[in-house]
Amino acid sequence: xxxxxxxxxxxxxxxxxxxxxxxxxxxxxxxxxxxxxxxxxxxxxxxxxxxxxxxxxxxxxxxxxxxxxxxxxxxxxxxxxxxxxxxxxxxxxxxxx
Length: 97
Prior knowledge:
By secondary structure, the chain is an all-beta fold. Helices cover 0% and strands 12% of the residues.
């Protein structure tokens, strides 16, 4: 995974339809507002954390079975997870926005 910490101006990361099976090595980013991971092969949300300005997270059309690993996303307003393999929303993060 590419380290984006040295890229302070990035506000959108569009990685849809890339056959990604993991995002676990991503360590977060301070300025990303939109993260698009639709149409990949993600099974979990590891690595989707520590993005204090993230407002829109698009995770549709993956293989997600849980949202347990979504952490430290205090600005999140939009979360799309349709067409996944989620069995429960028990671990859905609290959206304060």
